Amino acid sequence: MGGCGLACWRCRWLLPLLLGLAIIMGIIALAGRGWLESESEPYVQQASLWESCTRREEDLNWSCESLMDYGWGKAAAATYLVGFVILVICFALAVIAFSIEILRFNFVRGIGGLLFVVAAFQIIGLVIYPVKFTEEIPLTGDNMFSWAYGFGWASTVVVIGCAFFFCCLPNWEDEVLGNIKPTCYYSSPEKAPYLN
After folding, report:
1. Could you read off the pLDDT of 132-179 as tens digits, one per residue?
2. Across-strand partners of 184?
3. Angle at the Cα of 141 from the Cα atoms of 136 and 78, rounded to 5 degrees
4. Cβ 42 vs Cβ 57: under 8 Å
5. pTM exceeds 0.85, yes or no
6. SS3 at position 184
7. Which class for 140: exposed (0-12), middle (13-18), buried (19 or more C-beta within 10 A)?
8. Which residue windows are coiled coil (predicted)?
9. What is the rounded distance in angstroms from the CA atom of residue 90 to the CA atom of residue 112?
10. Phi, psi (5° rounding) for residue 39?
11. Cβ atoms within 10 A of the Cβ of 69, count?
12. pLDDT (0 to 100) of residue 144
């Protein structure tokens, strides 16, 4: 009986797939209205990255104000959006890098460096938003930073993980390119009679 590990080259699409997942979570964060919501009924407050909405308990219509009227609102949206755009560029570069037969490992390390820049921009936006929002926007009732804000952080965590992998990938160049033989482990029948 023997078991050989799969060649890493077959798994090369895992990192671009993770970057695609980070993009999807980033889109949800950018489009979602759940950055801040009322914690319990009556639901009278909700906010996105772009606007803050409130309503009275008996009213069904939301009254919204743009967060782009505030300097911090523009800064939070701009930094998160710039990080997202660079993330999309990194995804395209990763697909190109892993599509060509001769993988350029310095190119891959450059993608990792760009991903750290993405993470920095996104973290800045994700920190500015709650700090300044709670300082400058009057809140009604008990509120919590909700699902869309969580997707923003999830996207950032995936980006940081991918950045480390992209930067470290050249250290395993031979394994990834399949230049070494896979290690196979065999057990003799005398040592393992139960395999017969």
Report:
1. 888 888 777 777 888 899 999 999 999 999 998 888 876 555 555 555
2. 4
3. 35
4. yes
5. no
6. strand
7. middle
8. none
9. 9
10. -75, -30
11. 9
12. 84
What token pair was written down for 179? 């230049």
Neighbours of 154 (CB within 10 A): 17
Kind and range of the H or E element at 24? helix 14-31
For position 119, what pLDDT does the model report?
A: 96
Per-residue confidence band for 25, with pLDDT thresholds at 50, 70 and 90: very high
Which residue has 């970057």 as its token pair? Answer: 19
Tokens read off for 122: 């996104």
Instruction: Give CA torsion, residues 53, 56, 61, 64, to 10 deg.
Output: -20
Beta bridge partners of 3: 185
Tokens 């290690």 belong to which residue?
183
Distances (CA, A) of 99 to 104, 140, 155, 178: 11, 52, 24, 15
Residue type at 65 in one-letter notation: E
Work out the number of other CB atoms within 10 angstroms of the CB of residue 123: 18
Query: 17-33+71-174, what's its fold?
Result: Butyryl-CoA Dehydrogenase, subunit A; domain 3 (1.20.140)
CB 86 within 8 A of CB 117: yes
